[in-house]
Amino acid sequence: MSAEQITIESLTEQGKEILQGISFVQPSPNVIRLFSVYRLENDSIYERWKNVAIRFLSSKYPNDESVTDFRKAAEKFEKDHYSPTEMKKMIGILESITIIPTQLNHMCNQQSKQPSIIINNTNSQSQSQTIDVDWLSKAIEDVLTISQIKELNKVFEDEGGNMAKAKPKLVEKLKSFGENIASNIVANIITSPSIWTSLFN
């Protein structure tokens, strides 16, 4: 497919073809697996599709939130052993652009400049806090596996839901996942444009 033939529609259709080629990998006998593993029909076709889609979105819709959302979904797709759920997210992002092709960067920029104006609005504060919590959750999920998150939750539950008691054990559990886990979570948080701006401006 030449550059002139690439469209959101063509990328969407190719994504659906890749999705149809994803198959579940059965675990070996006597092996208990805590996560699902899938196989791509053709790795190279997926890699080409992903990179072409990212370049296309970056060139046609610069600064649009769909570019970041697509990248994150692709990273999670690969991290989650080619989970069809994440592939569907990527396809959904492409389909949303077909439905509403207008870039969303201007809307997002305007909203990001308004907290000082709406700070006394209780509903607006609750909405902003919800968005912040959702974003922080994503920053953590990008680093930890599902099984690791479940392990952390078990530590919390074992302490009767008391965060003060659970905190030292949660820290130890994070350390047990590897020395880079905590630093990667912090890096995900501080490299967010909104956090970076508030820290250094």
Word description of this protein:
The protein is an all-alpha fold and 201 residues long. It has helices at residues 8-20, 43-60, 65-79, 84-99, 105-112, 115-118, 122-141, 146-158, 163-176, 179-190, 193-200; strands spanning 23-24, 38-39. A two-stranded antiparallel sheet has the order 1-2. It starts with 7 loop residues before the first helix and ends with a helix.
How many beta-strand segments?
2
Estimated structural class: mainly alpha
Major sheet description:
2 strands, antiparallel
- Whole-number tally of structural domains: 2
Q: So how many helices?
A: 11
Helix content: over 70%
Any descriptors?
mainly alpha; 2 domains; 11 helices; 2 strands; 70% helix
Give the topology, please.
Elements lengths: L7 H13 L2 E2 L13 E2 L3 H18 L4 H15 L4 H16 L5 H8 L2 H4 L3 H20 L4 H13 L4 H14 L2 H12 L2 H8 L1
Antiparallel strand pairs: 1-2
Quick rundown:
The chain has 201 residues and is mainly alpha-helical.
